[in-house]
Design brief:
The structure is a single chain. The chain is mainly beta. The chain contains two helices and twelve strands; from the N terminus they run E-H-E-E-E-E-E-E-E-E-E-H-E-E. Strands 1, 2, 3, 4, 5, 6, 7, 8, 9, 10, 11 and 12 form a twelve-stranded mixed sheet that branches. Strand 2 and strand 3 form a beta hairpin. It is globular. 37% of the residues are buried.
Length: 251
């Protein structure tokens, strides 16, 4: 994909219950706080159009399982892979990759009040793009399968500075030593990630993520680029890489 990373990718048919508007982007998106994103027009302005579609708020998962009906993805690139392991900072038995979506872009680091464990921020999914990873290929953009969890893998803070404090770096690790689930291609491909490969993670709180992207990428309040894109596979063969059909910005 040629989209910048990190960015938010919205599966338009999933968001609109299969209704793809004629030009692919003739609707606005409202998130939980009341913030509304409007489609970018041909003159690089925004169109203040109806209808307004509410971004769904899926129930958070306590165990990091996949979210039914997920339609919001974070598109991100690999900064460091297993071939870039730093022995003093990375656990060679667990480390898979560091990506360019740091955890502050999801939400503040917090703990579950009941268990004292870090709250899950997002999970690695099979993905929207048909990117070949080493010898592995799974039809990662085939319908709802793109949101399926890559089991056995955790997304969260690393321990890059070796002080046992969250470092804000988005890191993919196995849940446990020997965590390879031997489930075919659903998670094993992550072992073969290389620098600059792209993948997607699904946030448990998409509205909060959109707000954080607005604060980070909406330059000086001028609505230059919020990095929220809509994609669709409508009319494409099964397994084809989805096409970008729209972009949204603040009004």
């Amino acid at each position: 994909s040629d989209l910048p990373t990190p960015s938010i990718v919205v599966d338009v048919p999933a968001l609109t219950d299969g209704i793809l508007f004629d030009d692919g982007g003739a609707f606005s998106i409202r998130i939980r706080s009341g913030l509304t994103l409007y489609p970018v027009s041909s003159d690089s302005g925004v169109d203040y159009v109806d209808p307004v579609v509410d971004l769904p708020v899926p129930p958070p998962s306590a165990d990091g399982a996949d979210v039914p009906g997920a339609c919001v993805y974070i598109h991100t690139s690999v900064l460091r892979s297993r071939s870039d392991i730093e022995a003093s900072r990375d656990d060679p038995d667990l480390f898979l990759a560091e990506v360019d979506c740091g955890t502050p872009l999801l939400r503040d680091f917090s703990f579950d009040d009941a268990t004292g464990s870090p709250r899950p921020l997002a999970y690695l999914c099979l993905g929207l793009n048909n990117h070949h990873v080493g010898p592995y290929y799974w039809a990662r953009s085939a319908g709802s399968g793109s949101a399926m969890e890559a089991p056995g893998i955790v997304f969260g803070d690393g321990n890059y500075y070796g002080d046992d404090h969250p470092d804000g770096k988005g890191t993919l690790t196995w849940k446990r030593i020997g965590g390879n689930t031997n489930d075919g291609k659903r998670s094993e491909w992550a072992q073969f990630l290389k620098r600059k490969d792209t993948l997607q993670i699904i946030p448990y709180d998409p509205s909060d993520v959109v707000e954080r992207f607005v604060r980070k990428f909406d330059f000086m309040g001028e609505q230059k680029c919020v990095r929220v894109y809509g994609v669709s596979r409508s009319g494409l063969p099964l397994g084809a890489e989805p096409r970008v059909v729209c972009e949204w910005r603040c009004g």
